[in-house]
Amino acid sequence: MEKGKNFVLGVFDDEDVLVHGVHDIRKDGVKIKEVFTPFPVHGLDAALGYKPSNLPIAAFLFGMTGTCLGLTMMIGMMGYDWPMDIGGKPYVPLPDFIPITFEATVLFASLGMVGTFLAICGLGPWNNKPFMFDARSTDDKFVMVVDLDKNKMDQSQISNILRSHGASEVNFKSLT
Asked: Is the pLDDT of residue 20 over 60?
C-alpha cells in the first residue's frame, strides 16, 4: 500500500446487503477499491465488475504439457531407449500408458495452476505482508474500501452513501 492515502471503510453485517450495496454504490458513481470478506460471497465478483479469470486456460495448457511430457517419456523409454519384447507385445502399447499419462496431466495442471495463482495474485515470500484495513473482515464482518483519492466526492458524501446502502458503520483510515 502506498503511504499518504486516505480510505473510507464501510462495514457490513450481511453478505446480501453487501452485494446489493456494492451494485448500488457503483451506480451512484463511487469507485470501490476492494471488498474484504471472511468467506467467498457468490455474485460479488460480478457486482464489482471483475472479469472472469484466465486460470482455466492456464490449467488446460499445463495439463496438455503434462500429457505431452508423460507420453514422450514413456514412448522414449519403452520404444527407443529400452525396447523389450515382452510376450510378443508391441514396444509402445498406448493403452497401457493411459494411467501414467493421466497422472502426469493432473500433476502438471495442479502444480501449474497453484504457481500461476501465486504469481498473478502476488502471493509469495518475496512480497510484503498485505495490509489489513479491519481485522473483523477475517471473522464476521464485510469491509468495503473506498479510496478517497480516486473519487470525486468527499469523505462525508461517501460516508452517507455507504450508510444509505446498508453499512452498519463507516470508518476513516489514513496510511502514514
From this structure: yes
Buried b (16+ CB within 10 A) or exposed e, 149-172: eebebeeeebbebbeebbbeebee
Q: Which of 121, 144, 162 is the last residue of a domain?
A: 121
**What pTM did the predictor assign?**
0.71
pLDDT of residue 94: 87
107 has a pLDDT exceeding 90: yes
Q: Which helix (H) or strand (E) holds 157?
A: helix 155-164
Portion of the chain with pLDDT greater than 70, in percent: 95
Asked whether residue 83 falls in the same domain as residue 60, the answer is yes
Structural domains of the chain, count: 2
Residue 105 near residue 97 (C-beta atoms within 8 A): no
Domain that holds residue 33: 6-52+132-174
In angstroms, what CA-CA distances link 11 with 66, 84, 93, 162? 45, 69, 62, 9
Element housing 117 (H / E):
helix 98-121
**Residue 126 falls inside a structural domain:** no
C-alpha cell at 20: 446489493
